[in-house]
């Protein structure tokens, strides 16, 4: 079955899917570059996801992409899958940070040249700059989830307001981060961990499963499959 969200087991659709699809695409590009250039592995601030190498991360992204955007069944819940979805929303926040930073740089640039003629290709205007999309994507996804347009504008540069709204979207898709709470119990009392997992209908090996180390051809197959969903629009 597809991914289990707070509103039931379903595939993401419409603007909600578009936002997640775009973030997954940038993550795949980043991990492919890391493998090709043997670069430092990007950290998303999700230790359960960050601990794996790029090939393992792509294996995880392959599974959660097909569950979120398709009809792939993840047979048994595991911390490795939940953390991978969490990392996708951390990527969205990183992209918004970059977008806001670029906008603020543009504002400084226009203030610097304000009143001066710009002859290279004509007079430069703000309307000629590319339209930003990540913040608008968040607005569209929230409107889909909540049934009404959220009270925020795509030009808003207050990062804390965007963190709050991305968290709202993530909470609907992921729900309670069981892997974070379960991890806290693992080193205290194993019987408490067992009870925690049992009470939430989570398997005993929820924290124990790890992604395999895929061969290069398996990594390429995972990338191809993910891109099939990323570019399916």
Brief overview, please?
With 233 residues, the protein is mainly alpha-helical. The chain is 61% helix and 3% strand. It contains nine helices and two strands, in the order E-E-H-H-H-H-H-H-H-H-H.
Q: What features would you describe in this structure?
A:
The structure is a single chain. By secondary structure, the chain is mostly helical. The protein has nine helices and two strands. The chain has one domain. A two-stranded antiparallel ribbon has the order 1-2. The protein is globular. The two termini are 22 Å apart.
Task: Find the structural class using helix and strand composition.
Answer: mainly alpha
Helices, by number, come to 9
Helix percentage = 55-70%
**SSE sequence, one letter per element:** EEHHHHHHHHH
Strand order of the largest sheet: 1-2
Global outline: globular
For the largest beta-sheet, the strand count, sense and barrel status come to: 2 strands, antiparallel
- End-to-end span in angstroms? 22 Å
How large is the radius of gyration?
20 Å
List unreliable stretches of 5+ residues.
Answer: 108-131
The total beta strand count reads: 2
Strand-residue proportion: under 5%
Q: Give the integer mean of the pLDDT values.
A: 87
Total number of distinct structural domains: 1
What is the secondary structure topology, with strand pairs?
Blueprint: E1 3-5, E2 8-10, H1 14-37, H2 47-50, H3 54-69, H4 79-113, H5 134-146, H6 159-174, H7 178-186, H8 190-199, H9 216-230
Antiparallel strand pairs: 1-2
Helix pairs in contact: 1-3, 1-4, 1-5, 1-9, 3-4, 3-9, 4-6, 5-6, 7-8
